[in-house]
Amino acid sequence: NCPPPALLSPACASLCLQEALQVLHHSQSEACARLCQALIGHLAPPSSDPSHSSLLAGLQDPERSRLLEAVMKWVGPEHLRAMFQQLKGQLRGVANHRVANHGLQRLLDHAPKDVVQEVLAELGPVLHEPLARGHPGVLTSLAGACQRHPQLQPEALRCLFRV
């Protein structure tokens, strides 16, 4: 289940892949989507065990999480929905994890409305926890995501005022 070491080591390999994703996205090349899918397949392969999320494990790993975060910037809404499904029900732990919370922030930065709505429903009542752990970016990203979707703003404000 571990990704090939060449994807992550040396550290410049990860940086090169992140830059390649950005360049391919800006060139509007279909290769960007293929590279995103390949990276997801290597960094967070599907698990036969429904209780194990390889995406969660990848987001908790400092090396793999950087590439997964980069993929979230450029992958489309359908892939983001699929990635969210692997995290659903575990968002509290993701938001409170010292590394994985950054992946949640990237997901929220690019997530479609239905994903943001589900994150808000799951995390809204416990938003004080990531803040107490020193992860204010989770609140900022969730608020920014709700700003893009005006229908979610009243509930987001209620949750923020409870914090």
TrEMBL record:
GO biological process, any: endonucleolytic cleavage in ITS1 to separate SSU-rRNA from 5.8S rRNA and LSU-rRNA from tricistronic rRNA transcript (SSU-rRNA, 5.8S rRNA, LSU-rRNA)
One GO MF term: RNA binding
GO CC terms: 90S preribosome; nucleolus; preribosome, small subunit precursor
Name assigned to this protein: NOP9 protein
Gene label: Nop9
Biological source species: Tricholaema leucomelas (pied barbet)
Keyword entries, A-Z: Repeat
